[in-house]
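To: structure desk
From: M.T.
Subject: fold request, one chain
Message: Could you run this one when you get a chance? Sequence is below, nothing fancy, just the single chain.
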Amino acid sequence: MVITDFLFAKCFKFVQTNNFIAMDRKKFIKNSILGTTLLATNKLATNLSANNIDELRPLDVVGFNHINNTKSSVMNNLVLHKSNTRGEANHGWLKSRHTFSFANYYNPERMHFGVLRVLNDDFVEAGMGFGTHPHDNMEIISIPLEGDLEHSDSMGNISVIKHGDIQVMSAGTGITHSEYNKSKENPVKFLQIWVFPNKKNVNPRYDQLTLNLSDRRNKLQQILSPNPNDEGVWIHQNAWFHLGHFDQDKEITYNLKDPKNGVYAFILNGNFTIQDQALENRDGLGIWEQSQLSIKSLSANAELLLMEVPLAI
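Reply: Done. Structure tokens follow.
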């Protein structure tokens, strides 16, 4: 029995005994995907110390919210997150947009998409960065978009990643690390992505890979999978990530690796339609109960990131 089935059974029993109206199972699973019903369980999913910048807040059932929330647009098997509805943090040296609740941004409709917990769009000023801080039991992926990002961790790794690279850490039993903009003159822009693992308390590990940018021209390039011997880096989760860079009016089909998974698409540049849903720069679209996606680029130099992930934590 998957966690959603177990929680549904418990919640159904609870509402029966308290004379509330029981939630329809399909609605419950939809809420689980979007991160509203699983809110109480996420508090136990990771044990991180908060610094209000680069950490998760404890996800209490009754939280606070000092930022005006915006509604997600939920359609049949789709959830649309427009770019301008994301959370925003401005620390001067760091400007970050949060697709899902993170640090001081809390939105009960934006907790996670399946096991995809964090999707941050970060801008770090020259010479600045995140000081040493801990993580555990989380798969952490960094994708540089512009500039050079310097990494150092408690496993002894010191490295620099740049556009065209991908970095992954399995935090497992616990690590500490820091990230800084290597340049003293230019900002760095990168995506910070966190995925709940399917194995807890693994040995921490680090990896990075330089990708061939030509392999994503007018097609999807796999950059992450669950298999150490497959293309890209790997993580402890049944997930696949792809990047694509397209000319205008290119059409492709994406077949899910696992039909039980969902896909979260994030537009890096330009305009697309996915399943006939129009998307613009930095929009996000979550899709479930689909085994195949139809994707069309509507502008030149259109770029997108596809993240296929399990829907049950």
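Reply (cont.): The chain has one domain: 35-52+71-309. Let me know if you need anything else for the meeting.
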